[in-house]
Fold each of these.
Amino acid sequence: MKIMCCDDEELALQMLERSIQKAKPDAEVSAFDDQDDLLEAAEKEGCDIAFLDIHMRGMNGVELARRLKEINPKMNIIFVTGYSEYAGEAMSLHASGYIMKPVSKAKVEKELADLRFPIIPKNDALLRVQCFGNFDVFTPDGEHVRFERSKAKEMFAYLVHKQGSSCTSKELFAILFEDEPYDEKNQNLMQSYTYALKKSLKKVGAEAALVHTYNAFAVDPKVLDCDYYRFKELDAGAVNSYQNEYMNQYSWAEGFLYDDYDY
């Protein structure tokens, strides 16, 4: 979780930063006394939550929030101020929260517990999935996930692309083999790929990433830390990492990203 905070008063900024760190010790917290520096960092690195003092010299917190929302419309904005008259203008931006000074750990915890756009803890993900460039899958500690069958890996890639939408075995077969007939022989082949996929995921403790009901397959997006999913959420880091390459090794993936976004 990336949290940024901004206040042009040094002591107030230190208090804000310490309160956030105490409330969320596992978060990556960055403090800024300059609005432009925060904007630059948010654009380059991404930001999940921004704590902004409203009453700042130059660009005030409300205008800064508008600029941040242009970078990521789903960024959580929490305003911090000692001036209650700004509340109406601040809330018009659909902010996640509002803290009156003095800031405290308890006030920060209360706002973090009720975010407008809840943050899925990426540290809790079972797998890290790379879609940009070649498709690849890693454990949270960076180890490659070894798939026993290349078609099992491709099957997982397609399910990742579907982002939780269910696919039948027949649909998956059509993606993997295009014009081949879905006869009894190939149905048995798909069963072997399914078994191989489940086995590979189980070896790394990630069997929960695959949801398999009767003749239907899907991934559980909540347990995946995926650059494609971050991209769709307009995460600045993921957007900047995209270099017009998406699951390069699979012909069916050509143009799929452009189908989702009309550039």
Amino acid sequence: MLQVADKHNISTLAVENFKQIAGQGLSGIIDNSICLAGNQKLLIAHDIENEHLFSLGNKLAQQGKTPLYFTKDDKILGLIAIADTIKATSPQAIQELKNLGINIYMLTGDNQLTAKQIAKQINLEENNIISDVLPQDKEAKIRQLQNQGQKVAMVGDGINDAPALARADVGIAIGAGTDIAIDSADIILMKNNLLDVVTAIKLSKAVIKNIRENLFWAFIYNIIGIPIAMGLFYTTFGLKLNPMIGALAMSFSSVFVVTNALRLHFFQNNYQTSSINKDNSSTAINIQAIDLNTSKGDDNMGLLNNLFHKNNEKQTAKIISIEGMMCQHCVKHATEALEKIDGVSDVKVSLENKNAVIHVNQNVTDEQITNAIVEAGYEVTAI
């Protein structure tokens, strides 16, 4: 929204007495007017109600969208619906975790209607949905599960997830998440893909299995070999071991253990990810006027559904080779720098490949891209 406002030369106003209200939204004073932005709870807490607008918000929530209401001096200005786009691999990741015998919960600050709609898309049972939760509620739920003797892993990417990530037995942060979430986690996923959670669990099980195999071999090898080398079986069975052969056998034991451990390099997932068809169209904002006092909820609903429409502007994919990125924080900074360029979409920055894949319209130049990366502190070697 700020990018669109800047494009249309709409200046922002200074905010005074800014406050963040946990689980509800934001408040501040703009031009001596008290402004609110948040969910329905925030408005009700300030004795601001509008039956028709709340009805529209509930209908949007049933579509899996989060309605945010905006007011000025107790007068409702309107609402914006934010849709949480489900990644194509998320339902598959949920099913893979279920196949591993893992019980999955969804902890979200969204309202119950939105949470249920999202859960349907990922095939998650309604009993495992916990909605309208504050950051401390997420941490409390994890503590409750731990008190029941369960081992808990938490996956999150936002500021509100940090307490829960720190409380969990294993905290897993999305690499593209906030810094505080990354700092609170034990594991950081390199890609923004829930299937990597499945990979991490399967890989950890493979490592534990490999360790047990190596311990078994080492103990059995030494239990048999050491008594023979000491001559304990010489008087009874005539068995003895030349020291040179014993030294060679000991070296072979180490080689066997190391070779067995190296088999982990061949670890592979036994699932296949489906290809994702990218929609390279850009998004434009279309503002519609809505009569907040009308009883024609269905008509207003049609207007809200058309609030955002797709612009079929042709885009081109570009691959940018970047030097200087050292960690996921660098990936995040490079991603933010590219996303700030008007006309750039679908930004995918890879630390492993040291590049970024983006889609741009015809107005974006290579010079703009290079300048954005350089200003972020990195070097562009090729586009």
